[in-house]
Amino acid sequence: MSALGNLLVRLERLSVILGCIALFSMMVLITADVALRYGLNRPFVFTRDVVGLYLMPAVFFLVLSDSLRDGAQIRVTLLRDVMGKRMRAVADVIGDLPALAAFAVILYGSVWQGIEAFARDEVVAGSIPWRVWPSFALVAAGTLMLIVRLAATTVRAIAAPDAVHEGTTDAGAVEALEVTR
Amino acid sequence: QEVTLRMGDSLPVGHVIAETATKPFIDRVESLSNGTVKIDYFPAEQVGKAKDFLRLTQAGLIDIGYIGPSYVPEKMPLSAVAELPGASKTSCEVMRTYWRLAREGGFLFEKEYQPNGIRPLFVVALPPYQLILASDSVASVDDLEGQKLRAAGGAQSLTLEKLGMVPVRMAPPEIYDSMSRGTVDGALLALISVDSYKLTDLTKAITTDQNFGTIAVAYSISERKWRTLPEAVQNVLGEAGDQVVENACAAFDEKEGAASSAMKAAGVGVVSFDESGTAALQAANASIAEAWATELDSRDQPGHEALAAFRTALDAVRGTATR
Amino acid sequence: MITAGILLSLLALLAIGTPVGFAMLITGVAGLWLTVGWQATLGVLETTPLAIAGTFEFLTIPLFLLMAEFVLRSGKVDDLFRVTAAWVGRVRGGLGMATAIAGAGFGAICGTSTASAATLSATSLPAMIRQGYAPSFAAGVVAISGTLAMLIPPSVAMIVYGLLANVDIGRLLIAGILPGLLVMATIVGTVYLLALRRPQDAPSAPSVALRDRVRMLAPVGPIVALFALVTAVIYLGLATPTEAAAVGAFGAFILLAWCGRLTRRNVVDALRRAAHGSAMILVILLGASVFGYFFALTQITTSLVDGVGALGLAPWQVLVIILLGYIVLGSFLDQIAILVLTVPVVVPLMQSLGFDLVWLGVLIIVTAELGMVTPPVGLNCFIVARYAERPLGEVFRGVLPHIVAHLVAIALLIALPGITLWLPGLMK
Ligand code: NA
Ligand code: NA
Q: Which segments cross the bilayer (chain C) (predicted)?
């Protein structure tokens, strides 16, 4: 199903753009806050809340899956360099499947907490009562994309172990998902 | 039979709360139970950040967690009533009042601790916060206008705003650097905390006997864990908790007085509050409490009820103390 | 039993090339599940993601990475290293030495080793490789020079230690200056010796006339101004060190515009690379944090230190054993995690043996710093490998001589406490 693969890549691209916007906004917002505090003694009251609740989780979680596709994850490659392709595929599955399970638990937890925060209309204390639930939504969205990406990689590693590239998960993973359909 | 409980908090080793309340509680529990109840203590964020202890206690990663309304305002908005500025004058007043409300049968126990599945074993509140200023040119309330002060957010920040000051938020480790370099002109802290933040040499002026809010925390056990404990153990924990609340609050107030005297003796100035200054502060505090309660009411939380319950309990505490 | 099994599983996963963050996450979850059960594990996994990503102070990582990306795309880094090459390039290994000096200079701005390593990776590494340096040699210098940021103030590690051990932070920060310069000198000396032994690894640049060298200084002005901006913002108290990261990134953004390179592509690429790098570090910290819960609950550190205390050894023997322990911990744990796990037990023990806690703090941090560059988990090496797009093994190989030299520097700091304690002694 190339539609499914395309959809994931498109979603990742969109969410990376949102993550980048969050990063840029964070830079501008904090700089403006510092300038206003130092120059006019009138800082924004909301900087820390907005950065901690929304912008930081957006920067980290919205690019998570894309960074994995990009092969940005750090690994010890000493043994890996001497492994055959099939061995590598096995090693990838050994690492990725339990990681997928752990992230599935994180997804479950963040969805559940987000729903509770939404239902109870949870807010932080202060002059502006910011909503808490979007933080969990960002974690959930980022983790969900990561899980789908890991699933695609694992399916590929099992279906076509000879085609494994150096990254656990790279652009090829989605095509592999398509191959198996 | 022997029982071992895991207790976690975020306090750095040697923190005044740990020394005055937490460790005495652990010792008390061991001695009252003749060593059959042991507490494994994990301080300094070893098993979680301050914000996480409510969830981690509920989940059972730890049995007793350091749970404060200012860390989880979204889960325990009502408990923040104990941290509102202006209400009380001493650590004992805040701690006894909060303990009445948070312990079994109290207003906050029913409205907030029970619904969150936890039960406080003892509460801690630092002596009411004062202004800690790096400049000795501040002598009266009028000089406070425009001063940038580190505050913990929430009601503390609102008080400063109302008085024409500028609240700045930062993590505790950054206070020292920021104050020494002038990023902020001072901080809101209990006087007993000045030394532990290494601010003694930087402090040039303080307020005394004011209340710019405080921090209230309840070391709590999950209800689920509590029910598994034998009655004898429950009794030991209850007795130790009562004793620690009394002993710790007296110790806090004594140390606060000593810190204040030591600073004055070292030449630290005291900001004087004339009649109009005191009136302005009281008006600010009253309007913050009112706004706090109204905001909660608007979200279907009993804000005004909590405020009334706190004031009633505070009056009762004062009545007992003077008798 | 469980503990040994979990530690072995961690090593096995790392060995077969599982991403480091994943390996720590998986083994941490398994360990927690086996020791405290499913509910408690769920609690940890529910709180940890936002405990890291929602912490305001953590923003230094994306923003310092972003600053480096903007500076890199402004083209001024190339100018900087052309000038450095002109001035010190004629010396064998001159650019390597310049990297160590730049690492110390950048360390005076930046409080975390990883951010410094990332910046140096983005700036001096390409310049050295372009100069014809052996990639492993260049990567090694960058990885070790990054660690200077934790020693030279401002330093997040020092502040954390000061709060954990209840030691005066001002004295601690001042105490880091001379040891920081000593470590810098050690790196410079190591580079000199390495270049002497294998000249082909560190080719010297052609000699440049003095007039030209002076004339080349002009384009470097803006980049020096940017570093000065960040330094001034922190030291003049305009902002907290955390906020300074944002101001620095913004300054670098202006620099990009000033150099006429403010294209959509440049900005988007810089943002994306900084965000990718941050996500990578997030995954490692997420894993390390979950693993840290398990590790704390096992109380390994407590029993270890208690055991040492019971042996009845001479104080200096205990010190050496404990520092060796820090090297071992550093090989697979994050710096801050190490401090958090050990300081509460090590400091009371060492205090009872009569050691100065400021001196001890500097020693612990210098020693734990080694962990940033030792396998299997060496965060600085990971970052350099990622930025240089070189195999990790090559980076670890390049840093090996520096590890040996670093041990000599640590021995000096132990033998001569005055290096550490002289400057703080002048306070008051
Ligand atoms: Na530094
Ligand atoms: Na290491």
A: 47-72, 137-161, 173-195, 216-238, 244-262, 274-296, 308-329, 336-353, 359-387, 399-423
Pairwise CA distance, residues C111 & C106, whole Å: 9
In tens, the pLDDT along B60-82 reads 999 999 999 889 999 999 999 99
Length of chain A equals 181
Closest partner residue to A48 (CB to CB) among B166, B169, B295 is B169
Sheet holding B186-189, edge to edge: B166-168, B148-150, B186-189, B130-133, B205-206, B269-270
Q: Is B198's CB within 8 Å of C159's CB?
A: no
For A:103-132, CB contacts with C below 8 A are 105-106, 108-110, 112-113
Domain count, chain A: 1
A27 touches chain C (CB under 8 A): yes
Compare all CA atoms of chain B with the CA of C159 and give the residue at the minimum distance.
Answer: B173
User: Token match 């601790």: residue?
Assistant: B113
CB B150 within 8 A of CB B175: yes
Smallest Cα distance from A113 to chain B, Å? 10
Q: Which residues of B touch C (CB under 8 A)?
A: 6, 12-14, 40, 42-49, 51-52, 55-56, 58-61, 169-174, 176-178, 180-183, 196, 198, 201
Where is pLDDT greater, at A111 or A163? A111
Residue C12 lies in a domain: no
Angle at B255 between CA B249 and CA B257, to 5 degrees: 105
Range of the domain at C366: 56-425
| B170's tokens | 């930062």
Question: How does pLDDT run across C99-139, given as a tens digit for each residue?
Answer: 888 787 767 656 567 767 877 887 788 878 887 888 899 99
- Identify whether C1 is part of a domain: no
Q: Which chains touch B (3 or more CB pairs under 8 A)?
A: A, C
- Cα(C330) to ligand 2 centroid in Å equals 5
Q: Would you give the DSSP letter of residue B140?
A: B
Hey, what are B218's tokens? Answer: 């309840």
Q: Strand, helix or coil at B148? A: strand
Chain C neighbours among A 133-162 (CB < 8 Å)?
A: 135-136, 139, 143
CA atoms within 13 A on the CB side of C72: 24
- Report the number of distinct structural domains present in chain C: 1
C-alpha distance from B285 to closest chain A C-alpha (Å):
14
Residue B262 in contact with residue B254, Cβ under 8 Å? no
Q: Tell me how far apart the alpha carbons of residues C132 and C257 are, in angstroms, rounded to a whole number.
A: 31
Task: Please report the DSSP string for A25-85 in residue order.
Answer: HHHHHHHHHHHIIIIIS---SSHHHHIIIIIHHHHHHHTHHHHHHTT------TTGGGS-H
Please state whether C194 falls in left (phi above 0), alpha (psi between -120 and 50) or beta: alpha
Q: Which residues of A163-181 are buried (b: 16+ CB within 10 A; e: fewer)?
A: ebeebbbbebbbebbbeee
Distance C217 CA to ligand 2 centre (A): 38
Half-sphere exposure of residue C91, counting CA atoms within 13 Å on the CB side?
15
Contact state of C51 with B48 under an 8 Å Cβ cutoff: yes
Distance CA B292, CA B306 (A): 10
ipTM of the complex: 0.90
Distances (CA, A) of B9 to A45, B17, B218: 29, 11, 11
The full DSSP string for B209-243 is: S------EEEEEEEHHHHHHS-HHHHHHHHHHHHH
Q: Which amino acid is at B195?
A: D
Model pLDDT for residues C20-68, shown as the tens digit of each residue = 789 989 999 999 999 999 999 999 999 999 998 887 777 877 887 788 7
Answer yes or no: are the C-beta atoms of C417 and C150 closer than 8 Å: no
**Containing structural domain, residue A153:** 3-179
Q: Are strands B216-222 and B64-67 parallel, antiparallel or unpaired?
A: antiparallel
In a domain, C204, yes or no: yes
